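Lab notebook, design round three. We kept the backbone fixed and only want residue identities now. Task for the bench partner: fill in a sequence for the structure below.
Input structure tokens:
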């Protein structure tokens, strides 16, 4: 096997980002599985036992918010999020690089807003209990805030990769 065909080992930062993304995906998957279990129990309790539990709805909302927020953050890491990539691919090399640098900045800004306001709303309702569940009313904002923080981390890493990439000869 030649040197050129041997893949280079991932940098420690890349491995760390991959590990963090995989952890977010694992938690999102666990949340989806938990959501299925809770909703399954809700159906059995309501239609078979005829005693519908009150805790299933708030737990389902929390699990759904967790799956969506962490899944969206992992999508930022894998660059599978919404973007205007066609525009960036249609322009010249220098503008192409600029647009690819602006994209993670926009995602980071959105993630920062989500993280900040999610945390504000979480802290605001910690002392209010959800009816039917032993959880704070604002617990649903925790995954929103954590997902926002992960979006910022992954978007800034994407920006680092864009800025680190060498310019091609056409762009100089």
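Proposed sequence:
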């Amino acid at each position: 096997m030649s040197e050129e065909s041997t893949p280079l080992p991932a940098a420690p930062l890349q491995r760390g980002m991959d590990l963090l993304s995989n952890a977010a995906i694992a938690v999102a998957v666990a949340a989806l599985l938990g959501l299925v279990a809770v909703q399954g129990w809700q159906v059995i309790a309501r239609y078979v036992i005829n005693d519908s539990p009150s805790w299933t709805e708030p737990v389902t909302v929390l699990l759904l918010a967790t799956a969506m927020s962490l899944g969206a953050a992992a999508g930022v890491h894998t660059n599978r999020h919404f973007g205007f990539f066609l525009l960036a691919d249609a322009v010249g090399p220098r503008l192409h690089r600029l647009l690819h640098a602006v994209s993670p900045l926009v995602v980071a800004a959105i993630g920062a807003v989500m993280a900040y306001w999610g945390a504000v709303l979480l802290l605001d309702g910690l002392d209010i209990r959800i009816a039917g569940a032993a959880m704070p009313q604002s617990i649903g904002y925790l995954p929103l805030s954590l997902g926002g923080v992960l979006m910022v981390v992954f978007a800034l890493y994407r920006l680092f990769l864009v800025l680190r990439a060498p310019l091609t000869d056409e762009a100089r």
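Keep this in mind before ordering anything: Residues 12-47 form the longest helix (36 residues).
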